[in-house]
Amino acid sequence: MSRQSDQGQSLATIDKERRVGAALAVSMSIANQRFRDRGYVFWHFDANAGSGVNDEIGEEPVPGSPLVFWEAADRILTGMEAVPFFCDMNLARMRRLKTVLGVERAARSFLFPSDNNQALSVFARTILDSGERPEFVVGTALVDPNGWYYRNRKGEGVPSRILLAFLDKFPRIDLILNLNVSTYWKQAKLKHDVISPRNLLTYLRKEYWLVGKVTRGGNTYLQLIGRNMKTDPHKKVGLYLANSWEGQQILDVAEGKRQQPLEFGMPDVRGLSQAPGLSRGAVGRDAAGQGALLMRQEGDRGSPC
Ligand SMILES: C[S@@+](CC[C@H](N)C(=O)[O-])C[C@H]1O[C@@H](n2cnc3c(N)ncnc32)[C@H](O)[C@@H]1O
């Protein structure tokens, strides 16, 4: 029976949130290690924030991405101020999020009940108005659209209109994507004009990528962290450099090139705040990917978060 949050859920949600938390923790750990106690802000934009709680599954509600953000921020950002913007086009979910966050966290968050393109431009303007130089601004932009990287005719999906310009303007903001690969497989099979996982990495123009995946409840999710600074893999939490052997296996699976998805073990987020910082990494790029298009989708019904 559906309960209040109704934002598209499945058993995969638990694992997904753990992966979103792990991805956020990677970026926060690196930023905090380098910039703590120097008056820096850690900016965060959540393009598809939802209500903050996923309570349609099991006995215990699973925290949504805004709560996952705050839990990681309070634990990891010991020397930086967290300034998160949470956006959702669904007003009821935003209202509920305000309650779920509680008075203190709500007061320290910006909530936008609007389209994510619009909210992202307000986010950019707010950063610029703060006086920080865009090339030095650090933080994360999370895109968790309940589907693949597209926007449908109703405007549901990713902030595709301004995301690239935003990432170019703020090169130190990491991009975190949580995408439903099962949706991609279905659309690719139907010959929809969908961008492939490797082409997506190229299209989004980040220099370094960590990739991870989780399969649960009949859906496979791909987690991608795009950065412009060299990055270590975080194997304990299932995040691999895109051009490593493991990363290539994950991308092969995401592109449907393997019948049996390979498993690399469940993520372990314990102790991530002590994760090592920046050191040598490698570029994960697909030379064939330039100019790939976002797509039009008709009649797609989304899929569980
Ligand atoms: C997968 S759910 C969000 C789950 C949430 N990130 C979490 O972890 O619990 C997707 C959300 O994206 C919102 N959404 C879809 N398209 C949007 C758009 N163009 N602008 C803002 N929100 C959008 C939906 O209303 C829905 O609440």
SSE layout:
Layout: H1 12-35, E1 41-46, E2 53-54, E3 62-63, H2 65-76, E4 81-87, H3 91-107, E5 110-112, H4 116-129, E6 138-143, H5 163-169, E7 173-180, H6 181-189, H7 197-203, E8 208-216, E9 219-227, E10 240-241, H8 245-254
Helix pairs in contact: 1-2
Description of the structure:
The chain has about 300 residues and is α/β, with parallel strands linked by helices. It has a single domain, classed as 3-Layer(aba) Sandwich (Rossmann fold). The protein is about 35% helix and about 20% strand. It is built from eight helices and ten strands. An eight-stranded mixed sheet has the order 5-4-1-6-7-9-8-10, with helices on both faces. A two-stranded antiparallel ribbon has the order 2-3. Helix 5 links the parallel strand 6 and strand 7. Helix 1 runs parallel beside helix 2. The longest helix has 24 residues. Bound molecules: S-adenosylmethionine (SAM). The site of S-adenosylmethionine (SAM) has 23 residues, from loops. S-adenosylmethionine binds next to loops.
List keywords for this structure.
305 residues, Rossmann fold, eight-stranded mixed sheet, 8 helices, 10 strands, 33% helix, disordered C terminus, binds S-adenosylmethionine
Low-confidence stretches: 1-5, 264-305
**Number of continuous helical runs:** 8
Compounds present?
A: S-adenosylmethionine
Cα-based radius of gyration, to the nearest Å = 18 Å
Return the structural class: alpha/beta
Please count the beta strands (DSSP E, at least 2 residues each): 10
Which percent bin holds the helix content? 25-40%
Question: Main sheet?
Answer: 8 strands, mixed
Mean pLDDT: 82
Shape: globular
Q: Give the CATH class.
A: Alpha Beta
CATH topology: Rossmann fold
Q: Which architecture does the CATH hierarchy give at level 2?
A: 3-Layer(aba) Sandwich
Q: How many structural domains?
A: 1
What is the string of SSEs from the N terminus onward? HEEEHEHEHEHEHHEEEH
